[in-house]
Amino acid sequence: MHDASDDLAARWARIRRRVDDACRAAGRAPAEVAILPVSKTFGPPMIRAAMALGLRRFGENKVQEIREKSVALADGGIDWVMIGHLQTNKARDVARLVSEVQSLDRLELAQALHRQLRHAGRAIDVLVQVKTSGEPSKYGLPPAQLPAFLDALREYDSLRVRGLMTLAVHSAEADEVRACFRLLRALRDQAVAQGHDLPRLSMGMSDDFPLAIAEGATEVRIGSAIFGARAR
Ligand SMILES: *Cc1c(COP(=O)(O)O)cnc(C)c1O
Description:
By secondary structure, this protein is α/β, with parallel strands linked by helices. The chain has nine helices and eight strands. Helix 4 links the parallel strand 3 and strand 4 (about 100-105). The protein is globular. The protein starts with a helix and ends in a 5-residue tail after the last helix. The structure holds pyridoxal-5'-phosphate. Pyridoxal-5'-phosphate binds near residues 38, 61 and 223.
């Protein structure tokens, strides 16, 4: 017998093995690197199949999708992680539905989230998304603004700042990709030296995670290597 959930189980086992191999190649312990499954564009049946493998934390890049899936999967005890660009006017839904935001990239958004989280009586973990590549299409805080941004975030006690997130440049040149990850780690180390507690580095996706692990990722965001190719 063969069905889609067999494929999912095989791909999940394979990516965990590849992440573990990348850790060992980098002289790191596999337990140091978590995998965030990115379920964007996949519907509740696929997510239920992933839940059957023990997965409960899923990355999504659109608030609308989180809204729909959290209704369909309300019984699942899922932690939704927002990894996509976030409009300030979506802060209310985010505050209500999401357990973590990895795409915090501007003060206006921090203010809006904080206001809604206080209303909801909640606090969430956040990562600051930093723009480590020169690509105009990518979002994120410019690196030079990070120190002041982290200082400003101290005011918003509903946002527990846990680390940094980035997307590397889309390039066939491994050195260019790696430089993005190295920059994020250097920015983290500088911020830690300035007294910030930032244990987490979310970097690396299906096509570039070994480089991210070599540069210190504590979490890789994996979509297509787990769920298959996306239709859009
Ligand atoms: C889609 C997405 C991923 C996962 O991408 P894959 O190449 O499918 O692994 C990771 N991070 C972000 C921010 C994404 O939008």
